[in-house]
Specification:
three-stranded antiparallel beta sheet, Rossmann fold, globular, alpha/beta, five-stranded parallel beta sheet
Length: 217
């Protein structure tokens, strides 16, 4: 199975990617992992990407595309993969199609995790991160026993800048402008399946596996 996972920030893509990839026996390929591997490995692409990242700029599509191309050429991705974080726009989606056409292995399916934007704001703005151990708590869904204190290590909890409600809303606006058009792109190509991403993690995973199974090669 060659699968792309899409959905707004806070939809649970990272969590679901792990479970779905494990279920179908395919590697999870995330742009974050690819970037870190190239930067820490000191590759030519990593050094180029780091220049943009250090300047606070977005890494250009051509650099990201080249990193993804290299990753999908590795042996563990020969029989399938789950892409999380790529493509982020229609231009990258076209590039991905070209990559897969070159190896005669077209995309199997695109899974869209649907969640209302108000729910995303609630999910992300309620998160609190431990300064000491990095564990993430949630004021409503997974609160610590003592407000502001990590149950695991006793460290202080804080709200990350990108979890502030205004920042979350801005991230959703960016998603709507840049990434949401992918949904129409793949729907028009009969590649899109959607599920409700609300509820317990295991329930969402079960929904995902149910709709994805018929798309196995």
């Amino acid at each position: 199975m060659r699968l792309v996972l899409v959905g707004p920030p806070g939809a649970g893509k990272g969590t679901q990617a792990e479970f779905i990839a494990e279920h179908f026996g395919i590697p999870k390929v995330s742009t974050g992992d690819i970037f870190r591997a190239n930067v820490s490995g000191g590759t030519d692409l990593g050094r180029l990407a780091k220049k943009y990242m250090d300047a606070g700029d977005l890494v250009p599509d051509e650099v990201t595309n080249a990193m993804v191309r290299d990753r999908l050429a590795q042996p563990d991705a020969a029989d399938g993969f789950l892409l999380d974080g790529f493509p982020r726009n229609v231009s990258q989606a076209g590039e991905l199609d070209d990559m897969l056409d070159e190896i005669g292995a077209p995309l199997s399916v695109v899974l869209d995790l649907e969640v209302e934007h108000d729910e995303v704001v609630k999910r992300l703005s309620g998160r609190r991160t431990c300064k000491k151990c990095g564990h993430v708590w949630h004021l409503e869904y997974d609160p610590p026993a003592t407000p502001g204190i990590c149950d695991r290590c006793g460290g202080d909890l804080y709200q990350r800048d990108d979890d502030h409600p205004d920042t979350v809303r801005h991230r959703l606006e960016v998603y709507a402008a840049q990434t949401a058009p992918l949904i129409d792109f793949y729907r028009e190509r009969d590649k899109l399946v959607s599920i409700d991403a609300l509820g317990a993690v295991e329930d969402v995973t079960e929904r995902a596996i149910t709709v994805l199974t018929p798309h196995q090669d």
